[in-house]
Amino acid sequence: MLWSVGTRAVSPVFVGRAGGLSALKDALGRADAAGPAAPADPAEALGLTSRERDVLRLVSDGRTNRQIAEELFISPKTASVHVSNILAKLGVSGRGEAAAVAHRPALFPVCGRTTRSTR
């Protein structure tokens, strides 16, 4: 059995061993005061699943649904559904916009290109 406390699920065993509910509240209060931790993966902040990240990487490389399907061993229809879900989650209307959103926080390194230095 787990209790949901905000965005955390807490086992009653933890509550019993940690000195009761007040200790649990203190621990959660300290964690909330520090603020939410930034996701280690920038794509995680976009709410994409790992498969959607794979598809977005291929979309940003300019691949078609058929090419995405072949690379990921899925059907073209499944690739199309993933692309539609990605567009909806990113709030964009096309593949080009999705690729731009993916490259903005440098989710995927640009292969074969060097970055310019600023003077």
Automatic annotation (TrEMBL):
Keywords of the record: DNA-binding, Transcription, Transcription regulation
InterPro entries, A to Z: Sig_transdc_resp-reg_C-effctor, Tscrpt_reg_LuxR_C, WH-like_DNA-bd_sf
Domain HTH luxR-type: 41-106
SUPFAM superfamilies, A to Z: C-terminal effector domain of the bipartite response regulators
UniProt xrefs under Pfam families: GerE (PF00196)
Protein name: HTH luxR-type domain-containing protein
